[in-house]
């Protein structure tokens, strides 16, 4: 029942769950299987009034024990029949997978672009846009990014407990050894933040305006590092793929900031709040594009990929950092 009898993957494949092969142990009472589940997901296995858990137990003739809410631990499935235990485990995996995909993301991989010179140029940009384009529909100061939070996003993650955060940190270190040091030669990346672009179809109805980022030496090192990091994180199951290549851009204006200046800054395809889109009031960015297509936000040395925590701030005003990969 939903169990593949293929050769077991080697240790390298198994290092980062999720892994097809799970261990069913024989005990004196029958069989059992343990599954590590972050505590925020327990409620989906339990279901309303315990219905989901009861249904799985009844249909697979197993008993499922779940730690108390908020306590990190393992869910243990026990049963007389090995097949029943496997079947219950498979159903739990499917449930967890679908609910994990619906969780709003908690962390993202970023490069900080909030160095003083860039913050200064950004504030100048904001002032000039408000001066020259404030007549344009929807343009107002509440649209602008918080200068202390200027960043490049490489990809978003759902990390639901300390163990998962630790796995992401370990994977960052592995990426450093596997390919990052080789690409950077142990030096920070010199980039320029310059020019603006948008991603939707009609510049008269913009929701987000981005600053572009490119390597000073004209190479594609930054792109290659970004793509390979995302590749690794997607393969490990820690990140959901959003597009083929990482789009290197820094948000400077976003209509979501109107509603939630504290941090709706990260778009995520997984947020299912349709209502929030209705409330977005787009702005006419035609003039901004014309007037600022070559605006330079300054040059920056990128020296670390950060595992940033959404909706958080550190002492500098940037996002809280849960882990980092140093480029030098």
Automatic annotation (TrEMBL):
Keyword vocabulary terms for this entry: RNA-binding
Superkingdom classification of source: Eukaryota
InterPro entries listed in its UniProt record: AKAP7-like_phosphoesterase, ASCC1, Cyclic_Pdiesterase, KH-I_ASCC1, KH_dom, KH_dom_type_1, KH_dom_type_1_sf
CDD domains: KH-I_ASCC1
Residues in K Homology domain copies: 29-97
A Pfam family assignment: KH_1
GO MF annotations in UniProt: RNA binding
Keyword GTP-binding in record: no
Biological process terms in GO annotation: DNA alkylation repair
The name this protein goes by in its record: Activating signal cointegrator 1 complex subunit 1
Provenance organism: Gallus gallus
